[in-house]
């Protein structure tokens, strides 16, 4: 080993660069013997066998022949022709900010009424809005008999006489009460 170390010390900088380059190419060739994970093909380099130099003269001769071989040997970029598979990058997403949930306004009730009137127990409706019969099917006397609360008759029409005797008498009788909330 001492002779190789002496020969290395005696070698010029250019010779050392040539030897290191040949070693890099040899290492790349050995590494290319295994298939890369992405399946791309890699060109192989066949290294030439050279007897180890034992004297400085032999080292100089071996370096000169290695320089000639390096000139004919493809460069590292020619050896490793595999194209790496691009790895997807994860784009940062904006953090979700919490906004207070707005309190819902009156949800349309049965028949699409904008006041949210429905049949769940709540407040009796003694004074319905003027557009009431635009959303609900009303009996003919809905606005003339207004001394009660709003109810639905069996024939599914609405009366304004809830709580009075004889409510919905000409419409099959009382069915259920409409409430506000």
Question: What keyword list fits this structure?
Answer:
single chain, 181 residues, 2 domains, three-stranded antiparallel sheet, two-stranded antiparallel ribbon
String of helices and strands: HHHHEHEEEE
Q: What share of residues are in beta strands? A: 5-15%
The end-to-end span amounts to: 99 Å
Give the count of structural domains: 2
Class from secondary-structure proportions: alpha+beta
Overall mean pLDDT score? 75
Proportion in helices: 25-40%
Low-confidence spans: pLDDT under 50, at least 5 residues?
Answer: none
- Number of DSSP helices? 5
Strand order, sheet with most strands: 3-2-4
Task: Give a short account of the largest sheet.
Answer: 3 strands, antiparallel
Give the radius of gyration: 48 Å
Please state the overall shape, judged from the principal axes of the Cα atoms.
rod-shaped
Give the beta-strand count: 5
Give a structural overview.
This protein has helices spanning 2-10, 13-31, 56-72, 76-79, 132-135, and strands spanning 123-124, 149-153, 158-162, 174-177, 179-180. By secondary structure, it is an alpha+beta fold. The chain folds into two domains: 2-79, no CATH class; 110-180, no CATH class. The strands form two sheets. Strands 3-2-4 form a three-stranded antiparallel β-sheet, with no helix packed on it. The protein has a two-stranded antiparallel ribbon with strand order 1-5. β2 and β3 form a beta hairpin. α2 crosses α3. The model has no long low-confidence stretch (mean pLDDT 75).
